Amino acid sequence: MKVLIADKFEAHGVDALKAAGCEVLVDSELKDKALAEAIKKHTPQVLVVRSTKVTGDMFDNGSSLKMVVRAGSGYDTIDVNAATERGVRVTNCPGMNSVAVAELTLGLMIALDRKIVDETDDLRRGVWNKKEYSKARGLKDSTLGIVGLGRIGYEVARRAKAFEMKLLYCDVIARPEVEKELGMRRVTFEDILRESDFVTVHVPGGGDTKHLIGAKELATMKPTAFVLNCSRGGVIDETALGEALKSNKLAGAALDVYEIEPGANDKEFKDPVAKVPHLYGTHHVGASTEQAQKAVADEAVRIIKTYKDTGQFLNCVNMPKAGG
Question: How many C-beta neighbours within 10 Å does residue 101 have?
């Protein structure tokens, strides 16, 4: 079975696929037209991607394709409808990077509360301002509102519990066992916004969650509150967020994902949100720890080996109408 890996992927995962008898082609630079042409040329049965976009024309060029594996938790970069129409299964690796994203979320919460970035900037400029930076509230007894209590939201809650925070969540599914375990309270989305000192979103991307938090929602929050997004770009309306921060209607925000993100080989960040005051940002690295990437690679290998050996599609997110 031929596997084309068109993105960054752990070397030990490549070795494991080869050991399983797969013919593995690796080119992390393949994008857009070049990827479509590579699929047509090499005729792989399996395509593995991370952030690389997989569009409908790539399925047209790759009649051999039976499965696309997203080496990560989401799959909004893949045209699932096109895959379904062409009989191609789309699978992913949910939960493998949950701890990594949760760790970054907690780190950003602490950074916001203690103004760590601003303090570091001042020190580098030779400015000593202990009085200003001695005003942090602290996380203990603060209220954390988690929007989306999936695997990542749960891992955030577990760690926040250790900081003795009060935990609220909203989700389409009630989690009574987690409520009991962590002392959480399920409330409405509106209650999350109104009551929380920190609001963190952990929901899928796409039309249903685009601008889930916009001007109206931000206006509902406390002016002393912070909002964080380590899920998908566009879940928070960045224009509205910028206005809220500039007018001091919100204490601060932290983003790891953006509405305008550079391509894989770009070195310039052009999103205007970068110049918004009281906003901390990281480079879409929530899932990018060595531990997380190893776990994702192991899961991708498991999915591919299972398909090769049994014909079964693990973690399948669609049900093709033909073929497959």
Answer: 25
